[in-house]
Write a structure and sequence with these properties.
173 residues; mainly alpha; 8 helices
Length: 173
């Protein structure tokens, strides 16, 4: 039989690898194929080279399959640092942010990262930085809207009354 070729093989190799990593199901199938090659006598180095994985990864697949069976090849839950707030607290914080800060006896009319940080510390006993609070705003779908001073678009008479010194047209040095 004549050997088959794939056009643009280097780019297609990368594209296929990306497609495998895109889905948990395809990752599972990918691992099964790797185990089949090991069962057929290929060593971990060869399988790793063929699959674009390290030999250690192939060894991990074999070890996991030997200890847990097929379920050992399935994509497991990713561990990570637990959240600072529980699910209930997260929902409660969302409710808090929908209210005015004045309802909580704060001295300003809008929520910002600094005020949220103080609120979390006071109500939930959780200390988070201002930047992290800004990320929480974003993840909850809130947008930071700072009130603009009235003077910016106010009438010229009010602006003139607001100024400390009247403008006479001469530039002082």
């Amino acid at each position: 039989m004549k050997r088959l070729f794939i056009k643009d093989d280097k780019n297609m190799h990368i594209a296929i690898q990306q497609e495998i990593h895109r889905s948990d199901d395809s990752k599972y199938d990918h691992r099964l194929h790797g185990l089949l090659l090991v069962l057929n006598g290929y060593d971990c180095y060869t399988v790793g080279e063929l699959f674009g994985q390290s030999p250690t990864t192939i060894q991990r697949w074999v070890k996991s399959f030997n200890s847990k069976g097929f379920s050992g090849l399935a994509e497991g839950g990713k561990s990570g640092r637990p959240g600072s707030l529980s699910e209930k607290q997260w929902q409660q914080l969302g409710d808090d942010l929908r209210k005015s800060p004045v309802d909580f006896s704060y001295g300003q009319n809008f929520w910002d990262g600094k005020l949220m940080s103080a609120h979390l510390k006071k109500k939930y006993k959780v200390e988070l930085g201002v930047r992290q609070c800004q990320r929480i705003f974003n993840s909850m779908g809130f947008r930071l809207r700072k009130p603009r001073p009235l003077i910016a678009n106010g009438d010229p008479k009010a602006k003139k009354a607001f100024k400390k010194t009247p403008f006479d047209g001469n530039k002082q040095k």
